[in-house]
Amino acid sequence: MTHCHLVLPKRMALWLKREDAEEEKTEMNAIKRFGSAMIVPVLMFAFFGIVLGFATLFKNPSIMGSIANEGTTWFKVWSVIESGGWTIFTRMEVVFAVGLPLSLAKKAPGHAALAALMGYLMFNTFVNAILTQWPHTFGANLEKGVENVTGLKAIAGIETLDTNILGAIIISGIVTWIHNRFYSKKLPEMLGVFSGLTFVVTISFFVMLVLAVITCMIWPTIQNGISSLQGFIIGSGYVGVWLYHFLERVLIPTGLHHFIYAPIEVGPVIVNHGLKAEWFKHINEFASSTKALKEQFPYGFMLQGNGKVFGTIGIALAMYATTPSENKKKIAALLIPATLTAVVVGITEPLEFTFLFIAPYLFVIHALLAATMDTLMYGFGLVGNFGGGLLDFIATNWIPLGQNHWLTYVIQVGIGLAFTVIYFFLFRFLIVKFDIPLPGRKKDTEDVKLFNKNDYKTKKGQQDQDKNAQATTGNEYEDKAQYYLAGLGGKDNIVDVTNCTTRLRLTVNDIDQVEESDYFTRDQMAHGLVKSGKNVQVVVGMSVPQVREAFEALVNEEEDKE
Hints:
The chain is mostly helical and 562 residues long. The two termini are 52 Å apart. Helix content is 65%, strand content 5%. It has 25 helices and six strands. The longest helix is centred in the last third of the chain and has 44 residues, at 390-433. It has three domains: 40-236, no CATH class; 253-439, no CATH class; 463-561, Gyrase A, domain 2, CATH 3.30.1360. 42% of the residues are buried.
């Protein structure tokens, strides 16, 4: 009897521990999904940044000559183009409010996006009305004009509190939760007209009213906290710059790196409207001034692209150099497109995932070297918009500002190439020293086919699914979607799906039904696979939005058949 009394509490404790672990995994999964959803609007910043960079270049008389003088047709045309480039930076809040539900909604993402937009507009309208009716109660008098009062802003024509993207993200997240919870709620027949989207908006109406009242009461305190945070981070100097770049890189496998760069680049953590907007707002001043860039723009937090450009070249060369001569041609076919993707546009996952899970310490070393390189460049005066690849470098930094700041960029390239050499020799040494089994390293022909493997083991009971997966539809995205679905255990095993820049992110019911990495990398169908609990990431590449769309259509189609 005593033994039973001892055993039961132990079993209960183990059960509770497992339950807590599952809850933690669920919460972490939600955080990762939220982080990956942020990439939807963030991806558009690159294009609009390039537009602003070229507009700055072509409007600069010192570079273009008299044709770019104010008042000329040339100047007016590029002024019009520049105004279009500012679209996303001046309306970031609306973009984030609409963009997040496209990834976070579990069904009908289009309706969820519209509901989020309506929720955000209602929220700001309520805030406007509250501040109008009680102008002195909350310390924000709209009668003075939003341009004359700190903390106010006109959003979609509505004069309201400037809650920045933080407010947009919170509102969008709440409305998306309402959508996921109540969109499919069946109402009585007589109330059927209010079902679906209308029901979601109806609930959101009352929720937004309450949130507007709460925001008017607490937002001034939050703004003071943000201001204090800004001062702390700016005052952290080189330590803060190094830590930022290290975390941004090392957290990529987890998907949490979005929470590192997004609040700084497009959020209010450093400056109220984000560093990207701050850079482009003053880029003409920086270009025309001979003062050191670091004196004009003292923020070293958007330099992570240097690791993507200079670091990945060294890594790729080391991988190629350590490959047996008979396999060099095959490994080059794998490395060249992955490296070009990293260098030109700043998307590093296809290359990094080639070695990340074979030798994760190499990835940590990569993060350490990249952070050190960025901090060293910052010490030599480099600042600007260097978060992406060469396109960002050239269009938004080198060309517009090169005339007066070319020496800074020469130093940048010099340091970058020096680190390329360091990367090459260090990675080559480690690969050889520890005999790291990277793709193509062994002379064994089967090993060469890590990314091109024709034979693979199928799970018991999955043969028919695999045959269907190998059948081509004539559409690359649909073919991959079918193949992935089979390898993930079929549609019954899929809980939800979203994506980030290059990865398809899923939650599954049973992780044991998911095939191993060899299945997904067969014939380069994917670049890799990550498993963590019931969370799965398929490294697809830049076509992941199209693949996700085809994947969801396939799952929904099979559900409809049932």
